[in-house]
TrEMBL record, chains A, B:
Subunit field text: Homodimer.
Keyword Amino-acid biosynthesis: yes
Protein's UniProt name: Homoserine O-acetyltransferase
Segments forming domain AB hydrolase-1: 45-354
Gene assigned in the entry: metXA
Length: 371, 371
């Protein structure tokens, strides 16, 4: 029972091939995932959780490398809106990532070497297709719900659009149906920071035990600013100085916000692969659900009967409320059932990962309202 | 007369020493500057223009390196609110910069080598003190007005606070009285990007003809995003692709906004020194006019009789309108005459450099309303 409580960490090699949006065929397709709870005999209790850009499959169990608790234990766990005592919870590392699923650090069977930049460029829809292959493997025909925040919300949106008959409910938190020019711009800064690091070596750094940590760290710092609100940063740090009492008149981290950001950058490189960062940001930048459906977002939702729940946060300037409204308008136009709430939080985009009792109530009520 | 029309580009070596906020003594103090027009016999027509982070003294005349017109010809020139036919216009390259004034690329007289990171850390107030030394040299006792946008606005604000009797009017556009945590965070990303570039060599790159262009370029890209509004980026680029019709499924610049940003980064390194970028961003991060005056911003304005004009732009999220409001409240508390207008523009922070007829009208009216 201990195993069940902390999730079953597994990895499956699916034969593939998986035809990707870019045209390439990927085989084999390795997927690392965790499950919590037990699939009901009628298969009706499966919930897929989709993770964000730098997330992982350890949604409600300790991360094996960092030892930290799962990233969404506030939402998934005993007596939580998603409860393994009732639900069969699946969370898979996305395609292109570096926590066990196929990505640029995986071995290319045609060469016996890591793919590096020879890994094919993927899309959010490709991630979803790989998840569907995993569900086939697990014997899950239809999802009770697919749930995700940020890039996880993009996958959640893409699910009913790609597999209209396989999902009954869709929860999209702090997300968007397409990346804006500003979203792309921030990601491009991160990619250029990585590629500018000579240790990146065109992506072929795996054999050198000396990854492009400096570039990846800068990329993470730039991205991290977009995850926080200006007000949240001011509340948490303001212009507070480090331990010293007066300004140092040098270039060490003088302000607390500087050392915080540096720490965010440095700790990130211990747990993430730079090439995966390139591939996943690219997939997010390519994401435009309307474009995939003839330029009209409503078209993405015409073939499904799924119910939708949208949640945004008022201080999220990465994927602001207006983006959720666009989705709701399209759902309305397509005649779909849609719940939408904008929640108040000082924490910006990151709010979906933090203590948000209102979010829990919304998700709980929405999931219980299902068939 | 041609010379007058296009400004007189000059450089002066002031003996100093200049005592800096950080405690160091700087000598000599070299200041590169331009003047337009003629100082009136009573000395009453001098206007000092202060430039922004990466700006220069060529406010209304062609840049000698890029060949581009002056950066504020919309505001300064014949029949403009600041007109050399009436006003004696002075614009100096700020201390710490790289267009001829003393900065990290200057020769340290004690070693005969460039200062590099041995240049003392400076503040906005130090920039203002150096400008005052230049005005002494030019025989300007009192300024009719000091005018600046962005970091130029910080200098403009610092002028009456530092030299209360030497300035009669102060125009502060798209600026702030202190850098917020988010402002500092973005600058720290830029500094880390530069310092992560191995070609930075701890700042001692001047002898190698191979500056840290990649790091400086990333720094500029990150900063550039903060100069534009999300709406402006969407209007200009949206998700438009480059010349090719379909996504490239690679890591070349696929979206127009990517190649635009890359161009911004690459063209910047031709005209700016990486160490100067470190020093000037540091000065901006240190800027907190209230802190310099006992923690109360109003105190900064109690000893001057200057009139103030504040202009903000509604889509400027770098120095949003609320920052100008803080300044106006402090001016009110100090009993100073203050005009404040928030202008509407789609262009974000950059609006102050672009065509803004309303801004011109506000500045024109304010300057004409003076004694």
């Amino acid at each position: 029972m201990e195993d069940q409580r902390f999730g079953l960490s597994r990895r499956v090699t699916l034969p593939g091939p998986l035809r990707l949006d870019g045209g390439a065929m990927l085989a084999p397709v390795e997927i690392a995932y965790e499950t919590y709870g037990t699939l009901a005999p009628d298969g009706g209790n499966a919930i897929l959780i989709c993770h964000a850009l730098t997330g992982d499959q350890h949604v409600a169990s300790f991360h094996p490398r960092t030892g930290k608790p799962g990233w969404w234990t506030r939402l998934v766990g005993p007596d939580k809106p998603i409860d393994p005592a009732r639900d069969f919870v699946v969370c898979a590392n996305v395609l292109g990532s570096c926590m066990g699923s196929s990505g640029p650090a995986s071995i290319d069977p045609s060469t016996g070497q890591p793919y590096a930049m020879r890994f094919p460029v993927i899309t959010v829809r490709d991630m979803v297709r790989a998840q569907a292959m995993l569900l086939d493997h697990l014997g899950v025909a239809t999802l009770k719900a697919v749930v995700g925040g940020s890039m996880g919300g993009m996958q959640a949106l893409s699910w009913p659009a790609t597999f209209p008959d396989r999902v009954r409910a869709c929860v999209v938190i702090a997300s968007t149906a397409r990346h804006t020019a500003q979203n792309i711009a921030f990601h491009e800064v991160g990619r250029q920071a990585i590629m500018a690091d000579p240790k990146w070596r065109g992506g072929d750094y795996y054999g050198h035990d000396d990854p492009p940590a400096a570039g990846l760290s800068v990329a993470r710092m730039a991205a991290h600013i977009t995850y926080l609100s200006e007000a949240g940063l001011t509340e948490k740090f303001g212009r507070k100085l480090q331990a010293r009492e007066a300004k140092g008149f040098g270039f060490d981290a003088d302000f607390q916000v500087e050392s915080y950001l540096r720490h965010q950058g440095l700790s990130f490189v211990d747990r993430f692969d730079a090439n995966s960062y390139l591939y996943i940001t690219r997939a997010m930048d390519y994401f435009d659900l309307a474009e995939e459906h003839g330029g009209l977002l409503a078209n993405a939702f015409r073939r499904t009967d799924a119910r939708f729940c949208l949640v945004s946060f008022d201080t999220d300037w990465l994927y602001p409320t207006i983006e959720s409204r666009h989705i709701v308008h399209a759902l309305n136009a397509a005649g779909r059932a849609a719940t939408f709430v904008e929640l108040s939080s000082p924490y910006g985009h990151d709010a979906f990962l933090l203590d948000a009792p209102e979010m829990n109530r919304v998700v709980d009520g929405f999931l219980k309202g299902g068939r």
